[in-house]
Design a protein that fits this description.
Number of helices: 6
Number of domains: 1
Radius of gyration: 15 Å
Number of strands: 5
Structural class: alpha/beta
Mean pLDDT: 90
Helix content: 40-55%
CATH superfamily: 5'-nuclease
Oligomer: single chain
Shape: globular
Order of helices and strands: EHHEHHEHHEE
Strand order of the largest sheet: 3-2-1-4-5
Largest sheet: 5 strands, parallel
Strand content: 5-15%
Length: 146
């Protein structure tokens, strides 16, 4: 069986409004939470808006499923395949390290959340999450979707 690979990005008209989806939003969607499904559908249908996912979020999603369930893996890959998959490079890694140094002791920010936030900052995306306490950074924009 051939496994579906996520696309690096979805080609579309230039999207001035890039929304980086946190794992909690995608998990809600995969769990059948209606507000998450409705919000994501509206976001993807909105002209001038594109949704994105970090490779870190993809790793989080895949590590949280039953490794023997092709159905769960396919659902994750299909959902992520509808978004632009954003990579982590040296600039993002360096910014994430600064976030951890600044926010770990006071807010418990770990490397995964720091990488997500740094990806949002470097791409100019708004970070879409319900879990705002995990992202105390003042140089990224947070969107609470529902």
């Amino acid at each position: 069986m051939m496994r579906q690979q996520p696309t690096s990005y979805r080609l579309a008209e230039a999207a001035p409004n890039l929304l980086l989806l946190d794992a909690c939003v995608l998990i809600d969607h995969l769990s059948g939470h209606d507000p998450a499904r409705q919000w994501l559908t509206r976001a993807q249908d909105q002209k001038g808006t594109a949704t994105a996912c970090s490779v870190i979020t993809l790793a989080e999603l895949l590590s949280g499923i039953n490794s023997r369930s092709a159905r769960q893996r396919d659902a994750v890959m299909s959902l992520v395949g509808l978004t632009r998959l954003l990579q982590v490079g040296g600039v993002v890694a360096a910014e994430a390290a600064e976030y951890v140094q600044r926010w770990h002791l006071s807010h418990g920010v770990g490397w995964r959340d720091a990488l997500i936030a740094a990806t949002a900052k470097s791409s100019g995306a708004k970070l879409v999450t319900r879990e705002t306490g995990r992202f105390p950074m003042d140089d990224i924009e947070i969107v609470v979707p529902y």
